[in-house]
Every structure is written in C-alpha cells, then in structure tokens.
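re: ur question from the group chat, yeah i did fold both. here u go
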Amino acid sequence: MKPTIWRLAPTLTLVLSVTALTTCMYVSAHETRARWEEVGTSWIAARGDSICGLDDPRLLSHPARVDYTRVLDSTPEMKKMQHDGIDPASPAGIQLKTQAVDRVRTAAEKARLAGGYCSVWKRISHRDGREVPDLTVQVIALL
C-alpha cells in the first residue's frame, strides 16, 4: 500500500501550521525587542564602561562620568608601577592594577552617593546631546 498525498495531508497541515506559528512568534518578539531598545535607550553606553551603580543604560536617570585613565593613573598603585618600572603584565603589575581598579571603584561609589548619581561611567553620552556631569576631580580627591 503506497502512501498517497491525501493520507499525508493532516500531517503536512500540522507541520506547516507549527512552522508558520513559530516564524510569526519569532518575528513578533524580535520587533518588540527592537522597539523596546529604541524607546528605552536614551543613554549611549557600553555595559563594560560602568564603574559603579547601575550598569544597564535603559535604567539610567542621572549618571555621571569620569576620565578613567586620568583617575586610574592618579592611584598610588599605578604611580608605584610607573616609578618602580613594574611590567603591567607581570604578577606584581597585575596585582597592583587590580588594587588600583578597586580603589577607583570605591572612590567613584563614594562620589556617586555624595552627588546623588545613579551610576558612574568611563564613557557615556545622551542621544539628545545633554552634558553628563564629570566627577573626575571629586574621585581623584577621594583616592
């Protein structure tokens, strides 16, 4: 007995329906996610540039920024590395840089709380071009 197209019709109908439904759900979810990101992201920042506080640009209300290189270079640990000629890739250099990063994060958190900011970033901007407060001087003073 040979299978005919008519015997396979219910199975084919089910497979085609499930495929169409899955495709529609995927497209709908993708469009919703794209619209949410467009509406919710007025701040332009990479999550990896967050120093302390909130790290999701969609949740920001009053962020601040710092000149991270300048702040990091102002730490005693980085000054010691430069003064003593310690290689940043050596175990001592890695340890000192880790301590410097921790020190900067702690000082930035204190400055953030004192100023009422929701987060502190290395790089951040707003789509409408508004100025982001710079806490570099305050953070260096707290080191």
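okk and heres the other one u asked abt
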Amino acid sequence: MNSPRGEKLVSATELIRESLSMLYVARWKIITISAPLFLLSLASTVFDRDITELAREIISYGILIVGIITQLSLVSLAIAYHRGEEELPMESFFRAMGLVSSYLAIFVLLFFSTFGGYIAFILPGIYLSLALAFAVYVLFEEGKHGYNALTRSLFLVNGRWLEVFLQVVAFGIFSSFVSLSTLLLPLFFIIFGLESSLTFYLFGVLTIGVSSFFLQPLSAFYLYGVYRELVKLSGEASDIEIISLEKRLKLLIYIGVLASISAVVAMLIGKFS
C-alpha cells in the first residue's frame, strides 16, 4: 500500500544534524577512505608548479579514477552507518570496486537523459538533473542497475521534486558557509601583512582538506538520508506508473543520444571542411 503523498520529508536541518553525528562517529574511516583523493588533489593544485607535465597528466587521470572509487566508497559507508552497521574502509572500497562498471553505465544514461531534457525546452533537463540524482543509492541499496535504477530514482522524486530541491538548496547553503569559512585563515594573514607563499599553501591544504574530509562525505550521508525518506514515503510503484516514467525517460535518452551524435558530426564536418 502506498504511503500518503501528503506527508512531508524530514527537515533539512534534522538531516544535516543526523549526518554530522554519523560523520563524527565514522571520522577515522572517512579519513582513511578520503586520504588518497586528498593527496592527489593536493599534488594537482597546491604543488602543481613543482611537478612535470607528465606527472600532472598522470595525477589528473588518478584523480578521476580515485574520485569515483572514493565517492562510491563513501556511499557504501553512509548506507552502513544509517543502518547502524559497522563497515571497515576496505569493505567499503571492495563494495565500491564491484559496482564501478554499473555506476559508469548509470552515469552515461544519466548524461544522455539530462542532455536530452535540456534539448527538449531546458526545463525537463533541470527536472531530471535532480530527479535522477538518487540512482546511485538505488544501485547500492536495491540492486537495480542502469536504466532500472534511473527509473526508480525518477519514481521516488516524482511528485516531490520541489521538496527535494529545497532540501538540496538548504544543504548547498550550509556547504557554502563551510567553504567560505576556509577563507578566514588566509584573510587573517593578509590583514596582518603576513601573506606569502606559505599562505597560498595553507589555503590550498585547508580548502582541499575541508572538501575531501568533510563536505564530500557529508554530501554522501545527507543525500542517502533524503533517499531513505523518499523510500519511506513513496511506497511501491504501480505498473502503470513505471511504464509511464519509462516511456518519458527513454524518449529523453533517445533525444540526448541523437543530439550528441549530431553535435559530434557537426564538429567533425566543421573541422575537416
């Protein structure tokens, strides 16, 4: 039996408080999971002037690969802690590694569907950018892959898009305040005339550290909290609802694929003409 759609999601304040609490408990595991990406990001930005072009290119690819694995590992850890379970960093890592290919398939379909949405009068693209954001949690939690994970995410957000949007905006405001706070240390140095190359390095370490060890993990925990609320209030989808959502999603994916192919062909024609 479906839960009443009139019920509201838990407030963003409560979700942030809950996520912060779990983040504190899992702090050492988060540091272990996020450390490789932090070090690579540090090398790519703060110490970029001190490395060769080849090293810079290797680090860029490393950030891409490690970034995906880190994000998926944090999602796995967030799910475990929301369930009240203990999960070691290596368990999160291996679970993430096992789902990398499925995540990439979802990402490709997500790109084509949102791109197709933006081509189809922009607003569908904006809607889908948020409505499909929970597909990765569906992948981990419900074992649905690819197209099915996207359809499930779309169903969960259907009828609650504005609520979810406000939840995401609230989290974005909180994250912005945290990010702006990292300016206080370098600002202190500048005000007192102590700015130097050391100020630049400190600012880089602080900014990347806050992002890697706090904001990115917090985002994984927070969005999973929103996902759980959506699951709790949405109930089971009827066959008619699923078929309707599938048709819309397929249409936008086809539009996105055709638009992408057209763009590539036009670029090649312009290049060789």
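fwiw on the second one: The mean pLDDT is 86. The CA atoms of residues 38 and 212 lie 6 Å apart. idk if thats what u expected
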